[in-house]
Amino acid sequence: MTTLPERAGRRCHNVVNTVHSALYFSPDLREELGRLGLQEGAYFAGRGAALGRVGAGTITATFYNFKHDMVAGFIPRLWDVASPQDVLQARLRACDSMMRRLLGDDVVASPEMAEAAELALRATEGCSRSARPLYSAHADLPVPDAPHLAYWHAATLLREHRGDGHLMALAAAGVGPVEAIVSHAASGKGMSEKWLLTTRGWSKEELAAGRERLRERGLLDADGKLTEAGVKHREDLEDETDRLDAGPYEHLGAAGVERLTELGTVFETAVVKAGAFPPDLRG
């Protein structure tokens, strides 16, 4: 087993994941899916299409922190408007236009992009399908030929692999979907209340009830901030997620992880600077 520096895999994932996540905030995806007739619910279609024509229950289970009533308002109705295969093709077109817009054609065609794609794909060879439905569904998709699309595809595999593991950690710790998003927001790394209310389907009252449950566990204080125990709780969740997500980074090795982190940081910095994410996104 390769010995990596502490949290090297997490750092690598975080920078690589930025390019993956940017797509779901991009006008490119909205435009491509809009051409298919999908005006609302683009996130559920775009991220869930790899699962095939599934029902709302599968999306709720695998996405974890969305209210089921909200999901059921879109799924499976969206599949009657556009098939999962059509959505996947539109997603790749959107990814191409987004990366060219945010990074520029020179970066997209650069040797560094090709190197990053090769490293990220090599890391995915260490992923595991077991108990990881979103990762496993995406792992069935073909790897795009273009290096920048291959990089995004690999970033998606790494993101969903870690995400599936994180859900295992949340469930084992008895953290439900509302508690997960409000404690993440309290850490300063999650979504702001505005974004939670508009994207996750929970009401202000439901979010407040989740915070009260966390206060009863001693994880939040009266002002809604993490207590010392709450900070440790979040750290423990991330450490357990690191353990469950170690495979790809151990497979890539310390030198590969370091180089992929270096390249991914360059791309991450560029897309953030180009305005890939709303300024009021974080809590």
TrEMBL record:
Pfam families: HTH_67
Domain of life assignment: Bacteria
Name of the protein: SalK
Organism (species): Streptomyces netropsis (Streptoverticillium netropsis)
